[in-house]
Amino acid sequence: MNDEGPRTSDDGLVCPEVGGWTEEKHRLVSLYATLFSSGMKEKWDNRVYVELYAGAGYSRVRGSSKLIAGSPILALTVKDPFDKYIFCEEDPKKLHALQVRVERTAPTAKVVYVPGDCNRVMADILAQIPAGSNTDTVLSLCFADPFDIGLKFETIRSLAARYVDFVILLALGMDANRNYEQYLKEDAVKIDESLGSTNWRERWSTAQWDAIKFTRFLADEFSKSMATLGYIPPPFYSMKEVRSYEKNLLLYRLALFSRNERAYKFWDQVLKYSTDQTGFPWD
Predict the structure, then answer these.
(1) pTM above 0.85, yes or no
(2) What local confidence, expressed as pLDDT, does residue 5 receive?
(3) How many domains does one find in the chain?
């Protein structure tokens, strides 16, 4: 992969507008996907890349004419490509655009498209991940990039039945904190479903006495939920904070969850080199 990334051009297909910070998010995920795919190439027979909110493949930076490649396109162009790619997308127009752009970028890649809301079509996604065996091992990397906290923990639980590492966008600022009063109501279930817990409000009542911020509390709660699935809770500092350029407001944290300590060493490298704009540190 060259330092500037895949070439993009206006092809007339749908191209959602995104904030400028999206480039940083894609860079972080691409850096990790590169380390993951190359590092695991000789250790696993099959490496599978899964995206639950794949998008259209290209985006346009809001307020400019700049086009950027999305995370699926970047994943297809890592140094050592994955053996299989699974892209889930709910919007039919975005999914069509993604298919066209993927074919243009990596025509020989083994790619499967799953239409629909990932929370509802998880059985279809799982059906596309090879079951694996002692003689044909399978390791997957799943990137979940939801627009809000709508990714249900049961969806993650289903995927976690396999050997899967997760990079998850936790929309703690742009959704959970912004809609704090609404989500705190007893009949609001969005955070319940996101954490896989119905009694988090009790713990939040206690946490407030320690002056813990709501966003930090939710990040800790999510890590505890992942720990019930056997994932090593990452240190809070490693949940990469991303803020808006305009008002410097917290938007989300990008977090890695793995059952293997080595994955966190990879992630530490990603955090270390994420501000290096000259290219990948291992090239």
Answers:
(1) yes
(2) 67
(3) 1
